[in-house]
Amino acid sequence: MKKIEVKGPIIRNSEKWIYEWFGMEATCPKDIGNAIAEANGEPITVEINSGGGDVFAGSEIYTALRAYSGDVEIHIVGLAASAASVIAQAGHSKISPTALFMVHNVSGAAYGDCNTMTHEAEVLRTANNSIAAAYLEKTGKSMEELLGIMDAETWMDAQKAVEYGFVDEVMFASAPTLTNGIGVLSAQTIHKLKDLLPARGEESAEVKTVTAKLKLLRLKGEMKVKFKNYEDYKAQREALYNAAEELLQNGNVEEANAKMEEITQLDAAYEAFATAQANLAAMQGRGTAHPDGVVGSTGNTAEKDVFDTDEYKNAFMNLVCKGEALPVKYKDAIAGKLQNAVTTVTETTAVIPTTVMKEFIRELKAHGELYARVRKTNVQGGVEIPILSLCPTASWVADGTASTDQKVTANTKVSFNYYGLECKIAQSLIANVVDFAEFTEMFVPLAVEAIIAALDKGIIAGTGRGQMLGITKDSRVPTGNVIEMTAEDVTSWKAWKEKVFAKMKKAYRNGVFVFAQGTFDAQIDGMVDSTGQPIARVNYGIAEGETYRFGGKEVITTEEDVLESFAAASDGEVFGVFVNLNDYIINTNMQMRTDRWRDNDNNQEKVKVTLVCDGKLADPNGVLILKKKSNAVSGGTFDKRADSANHADITVTAAEGGQTITALLHNGADVPKEGGANWSVSDGTAVVLKKAYLEKFPVGVETFTVTTSAGDAEFTVEIVESEA
């Protein structure tokens, strides 16, 4: 776990030099950004001891930590005040019993006339609201209450900070005894050691167990993995896989996980073996192979990554750009690296160089609104994994009784397949690059842009057939969680509360809305409640880019090729989802390959980049799927013959309860009511066309449009004149 320090004042990047010149401790956004890049997805711990500083720098740091793909844990070890208190909201937080937490209003200075001062006051109030938004998401308190706490400049000790909800827990809270010395054993440790001491000179069972575990750990460090070739490795791997599968089927999850760990170790050993073989081939007789093919034995020096050599990098670039075949000496190393590839390794198949791959992964994590937020795993394809293993829960245990309050009650298992996500790049785009650095700068963005777009679309709308299963296509989502909304519903906060928010289960309310940008802009932005309180808003200027909120929930907007806007969506089509993106799993070992590919339709040589992955909801129970409800209505038949049964008023249901019927049109022209002689409204939901009005029409089909507060609905009436 990587540790990142937020110490001293929070300052802007441009101010860092002067603090360094004087040897003063300070933190700027660039410090955190560099540390996050180095962490490369591994869990990080952020240690905070800062009195705050620049609001915008603090917001930038908070945003970077929230966007980080790995786990973030906050440790408040001294003081988290002002802008530092905002940073403390970026992850699961712990506070030292001796630390302090403080929130207050944003302050600033201005010089000028009364208008300048009024403007500055409004800027400060807006900044207060933006900062309070970070507190609101963490604490669950109302905006009004949070602004009051800030206005009072509230100092909190550890217990009070947890009580208010700004911090999740107090460090060391479980320890009944506190010490203030160095090297002092806790009472719990002393009692534990006492219990483990042998009785009457004999080792207890507990001591024997601990000794055995220590021996096992030592053996693990000395482990030697042997195989003669790829087929030998493949046979060992298949045996371990079958054993893990059988253990899972029998409900022995822990033992199965142990077998899967053995598979991971075996894979790593074979990769090193294949790399060594390739390196030996490259040496062309200038060295000797290990006599028995032992990999990972003590005393061996680390083998150089064949895919990170200058020779391989240039060979890869020449393959991609010029179609030059890779040297034969790399064949075995490539086959070993891509043992789980979805297609056969050919003469044009290549492994992406390590340095390019690292840049590729970094770019993938930094882009894609949806991909950056979902969970990433690397579990064995084809094996059923208990959902509770992917979505662990914590529960309080007292008196030996475990909690039965589990989040997941159905759909208890999930499995992943091996699918290839392909990105095709025209060879002509990269044919003229002159060096590897230029190649990387062009190749990576092209591939990342295409793959991210496909991943984001797959997360929402993937069919599950030869590709990942998207949220909106998952049949495991409970039918009661599929909600239809009319045009009137979408613009009504009352309808959203009754139809959507009321269906959010308490255990799943920590989710986000996903809409097309057009849906948020046209139907949601600016919505207020009955008291005029803003429900939907756009935040500008504090974080990079615009951020969106609706009903206290974060909103992620997409292009319309991912989700249709409400206006463009057809009746019955999905226009939005509510989901905790952490409940969606993308399973990939980041195995990527390239192949030369001939596009015969366009007579072009292309490079095909393939990412082996799958994705689906681990837990579909909290997902809400929003669909556009049809406003279509049916018409009827009117018979001009007076004694006919169809010589009667025609009633057409055109609105739901609570909606308003405002007009009736015939062929686009307004139809006057004429005191109810032409048409009227029944029960507020239906249009009644009077027979005296219909008698005037000739035989044929007439088209009408009824206008409601939910939108327009078209219907037809067939005019006939039957014989007596």
Structure description:
The protein is α/β, with parallel strands linked by helices and 724 residues long. It folds into 3 domains: 2-170, 2-enoyl-CoA Hydratase, Chain A, domain 1 (Alpha-Beta Complex), CATH 3.90.226.10; 345-390 and 411-630; 636-720, Immunoglobulin-like (Sandwich). Helix content is 34%, strand content 22%. It is built from 21 helices and 32 strands. The strands form 7 sheets. Strands 1, 2, 3, 4, 5, 6 and 7 form a 7-stranded mixed beta sheet that branches. A hairpin with a 2-residue loop joins strand 27 and strand 28 (669-670). Helix 11 runs antiparallel to helix 13 (331-337) and helix 14 (354-366) crosses helix 17. The N and C termini lie far apart (90 Å).
Structure characteristics:
Immunoglobulin-like; 3 domains; alpha/beta; 724 residues; single chain; seven-stranded mixed sheet
